[in-house]
Design goal:
By secondary structure, this protein is α+β, with helices and mostly antiparallel strands. 39% of the residues lie in helices and 18% in strands. A hairpin with a 5-residue loop joins β1 and β2.
Length: 85
Amino acid sequence: MASEVGSPPRTASGRNGTTGSAGMAKPDLDRLLRSRELSEWLAVSETTLARWRSEGRGPRCLWLDTGSPRYRRSDVERWLEGRAA
C-alpha cells in the first residue's frame, strides 16, 4: 500500500489533494511529480529512479522534454499497488 512507503507529496497548498467545487477534498491523482518529489516520496535516490527508467522497472514516466521526466501520481499509486506483497 502506498502509505507504507511514505506520505505522498503535498500540493503547493500543503495538502495531499485539491478542493472540488462543492468544497470537498478530492485526491489529485493526475498531478505530475518531478523526480525529486517522487524520490522523496519513495525514499530512493533520483539516480535509482533514472536506473529504473532505463531498465523499464519503475512507475510509468512521461517526458515533457529531454531531461524533464514526470510521473502521474495515479500511475505511481498503481505501480505501488502492483508491488504490494
